[in-house]
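Async update (no meeting this week)

Hi team, since we skipped the sync, here's where things stand on the single-chain job. The sequence we agreed to prioritize is pasted below, unchanged from the tracker. I ran it this morning and attached the output directly underneath so nobody has to dig for it. Comments welcome in thread, and please keep replies under the output.
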Amino acid sequence: MNKKSDDHRIRVTKMLIRRAFTDLLKTKPVGSISVKELCASAGINRGTFYAHYSDIYDLLKKIEDETLTEFKTAMEPLIGELEKGISPVKVTSGIFRCLKENADICAVTLGQYGDKDFAARLINEGRKSCVASYAKFFTHASERSIEYFYSFASSGCMGILTRWFDEGMITDIDEIAAMAEDFILSAATYFGTPATQDAEVDQL
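Output:
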């Protein structure tokens, strides 16, 4: 067997394991999922599982690490736009789409038995850039108040995503993202008029 076909076989095997694991995680906590049960669900033998993972928790960690890497990659162009001065709320749609493209990982982050610590890691991934961007938009706001606002907005987005997941993700993701952006923009009026709008008024 050549390396290309071997790599493909490994990718397919890991995909089957990941799918079986996230399906099981929708119904029970990770501590209640056995390797035997997972292998039966994935249609593989235990030897195949142990060729890639030491145990269920190692599987969870590697799935989360892979997802975080994918998330960072997806966030890079969005963060780049933030640093150019685009409104932070525009990042919301990109984040939500990234989660939609990895819908199975929602069970790991948003489900009843999900890893809330991992969800926090995802939220904090864009914290530094988003806070810096909000500071540019709302120059009269203190750094402390912006930090609190980011915590408020990100927690609210997680609440929206959790609701979306619980209802079976039947609502279009663009509609969900637009809803989140509207909520964030409404809350942002706490800071007053953004600096960009002040500049536009001065030029009139």
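Quick observations from my side:
Residues 56-83 form the longest helix (28 residues).
Residues 61-193 form one domain.
Reply here if anything looks off.
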